[in-house]
Design brief:
Blueprint: E1 7-8, H1 9-16, E2 19-21, E3 27-28, E4 30-31, E5 41-45, H2 51-56, E6 61-64, E7 78-80, H3 84-95, E8 104-105, E9 110-111, E10 116-117, E11 121-123, E12 128-129, E13 134-135, E14 139-141, E15 146-147, E16 152-153, E17 158-159, E18 164-165, E19 170-171, E20 176-177, E21 182-185, E22 190-193, E23 196-199, E24 206-208, E25 213-214, E26 219-221, E27 228-230, E28 235-236, E29 241-242, E30 247-248, E31 253-254, E32 259-260, E33 265-266, E34 271-272, E35 277-278, E36 283-284, E37 289-290, E38 295-296, E39 305-307, E40 312-313, H4 314-337
Parallel strand pairs: 4-5, 5-6, 6-7, 8-11, 9-12, 10-13, 11-14, 12-15, 13-16, 14-17, 15-18, 16-19, 17-20, 18-21, 19-24, 20-25, 21-26, 24-27, 25-28, 26-29, 27-30, 28-31, 29-32, 30-33, 31-34, 32-35, 33-36, 34-37, 35-38, 37-39
Antiparallel strand pairs: 1-3, 2-7, 22-23, 39-40
């Protein structure tokens, strides 16, 4: 929801700690890219490749980094900030505040025996809270969402529509679980034999630390005999699968469609790019980076950057790609030389 009065450029500069260049009283009511912005929009310039757009933009004000301070052209009002993306992260909530929360319990919500919460709570239409669950203050449970029995939610958690928090799951403070996600359900554990596959009970549960965010339609399995744990501040994108017994450290970024096999240990500050796949029972060291669509079948050292399948040092992958490109014309030449009609010339 857009704020009706917006912000002046001067207020944006104050909010971001930036330096205002030019008039500061112009009112900004939205944000837009340089090539689409109008006089009431705030935009930003973070790369030299967009200089031509900056010089032609109709934006009311532009956030830019110090390297572009002296660039000619562009709008009359600019705000110099160290990091335009961080600045936008501060401005956007002010320009687009969340709609007001209607605290209380919808008449269609179902609350089990022994449920407790502190302070305010919002249980949306058709929400379900199982027996013995405990919710902290200012928790929001969206329409159709399910909180299983004996779950524990910290303060200011937000469980969006149709998400499911399975029984016994523990969430820290300010955890966000987006629409349709599943947290703490039975992991994929079976014992195979002559009669087929017998399920192993998954009894260890799942715990998410403070500030964790789980994207829409992602699945985090509960543990079998070891609790599945997601460390504080870790952000998980949409359509990610985290297998049972997985331990993920703090402040990790896990992009869309990543799959993490069971019993894998991922240390803090790791980045897993989109569609990366990790086999089970691995260790990924702190600060490692895994490229998009990589297949990880072995341990990764702390601070390493890997890509490809099987995942290996990213620089080696790039060198091999260049070498293959150079080899292609040589292969064509060899094929011409070895053709039967070429022999004896």
């Amino acid at each position: 929801m857009r704020a009706p009065d917006g912000l002046t450029a001067r207020e944006v500069a104050s909010l971001t700690g930036g330096e205002l260049i030019g008039p500061g009283e112009g009112r900004l009511i939205g944000v837009a890219p340089l090539d689409q912005a109008g006089p009431g929009d705030l935009s930003f310039l973070a790369s030299g490749r967009y200089l031509s757009l900056f010089q032609r933009t109709n934006a009311g004000a532009v956030l830019l980094t110090p390297e572009f301070r002296e660039v000619s052209g562009g709008p009359a009002t600019c705000i110099v900030v160290p990091d335009t993306h961080r600045a936008m992260a501060r401005v956007l909530p002010a320009l687009y505040p969340d709609s007001a929360t209607h605290w209380g319990v919808d008449p269609t919500a179902r609350v089990g025996r022994g449920v407790r919460w502190t302070g305010r709570v919002m249980l949306g239409r058709g929400a379900v809270v199982g027996d013995g669950a405990m919710l902290g203050t200012d928790c929001i449970v969206g329409p159709g969402a399910v909180i299983g029995s004996a779950c524990r939610l910290g303060d200011r958690c937000r469980i969006e529509s149709h998400a499911v928090i399975h029984s016994g799951t523990v969430l820290g403070h300010e955890v966000i679980v987006r629409a349709g996600a599943r947290v703490g359900g039975p992991g994929f554990g079976f014992v195979s034999g002559p009669r087929g596959h017998e399920r192993l009970p998954q009894v260890a549960g799942c715990a998410l630390g403070d500030g964790v965010e789980v994207g829409a339609n992602s699945t985090i399995d509960g543990g079998s005999i070891r609790q599945t744990v997601i460390g504080e501040g870790t952000k998980i994108d949409a359509q990610v699968h985290v297998g049972h017994n997985v331990r993920i450290g703090a402040r990790c970024l896990i992009m869309a469609q990543v799959g993490i096999g069971g019993s894998t240990d991922i240390e803090s500050d790791v980045v897993l790019a989109g569609q990366a796949g990790l086999a089970g029972h691995l260790r990924v060291g702190a600060g490692a980076r895994v490229g998009a669509q990589s297949g990880v079948i072995g341990d990764i050292e702390a601070g390493a950057t890997v890509s490809g399948y099987p995942a290996r040092n990213h620089r080696d992958v790039l060198r091999q790609a260049v070498a293959l490109k150079r080899l292609t014309p040589l292969v064509s030449t060899l094929e011409q030389i070895t053709q039967p009609h070429a022999i004896g010339r």
